[in-house]
């Protein structure tokens, strides 16, 4: 695995996250890296999965995420909504996550895959990882208030396309200087502009490091919060919960809906990354779950490597 890139260790003149004035949005008249670099086309969201596309009117005919093997096709055909229609369909919420220093943003009722946006307090300001399906005016106002209180919002990143949500909207509205996904997953990013394509390892902020695990997608990446002991695991794991919200089983998939397992080579690549990271909490694009640890995940992957590929959940008490 390659050595980590560390934004804070390079020349501040070229580091997009290093200028406090840029983080607060006060040092330049126009700090938005999105403007003028992508076509000014309407945004449309797939009602089945929530994936946003920019497309000429009257809109797209097919959602590439739903058409991919890793997602389910809509039973009654594709339907797309505009940003104004999405704003009328949902209300937003935010609440403290189970671990201090992290805030969860989401919408209700369920829209698309119903992803969550995690906003993490760091030494350089707020770091956003994954995104909600849409951000209402109240949600955006809260994010701006938080950014003012915590030194700006310099970094926005995601594990893979199933966690993007309305990432394009946050880039447009909040103007983070760094928008980061893995270089292997750029094909899914036509709705926004990636300003920092990540390789295998990238330190987004002190104690917040992005690691490529591959597997589910070629560029699938996890974010390790070493200060809080959290693995923002994307879809490298699926956690089954009891009715009271306790974790009861773990599984890993190439494609959850089709129940396609990861190959042994993909599992070995994932194990080499995750075994080196200490955590006691995992956060998928949909929930944060205390009580799932490094040992649980290592034992899951070792078990999956011991026989034919399998996507079935394994009880946590067997790990």
From TrEMBL:
Residue span of region Disordered: 1-33
Protein's name according to its UniProt entry: Metallo-beta-lactamase domain-containing protein
Alphabetical list of Pfam families matching this protein: Lactamase_B (PF00753)
Limits of the Metallo-beta-lactamase domain: 187-272
Superkingdom of the organism of origin: Bacteria
InterPro entries xref list: Metallo-B-lactamas, RibonucZ/Hydroxyglut_hydro
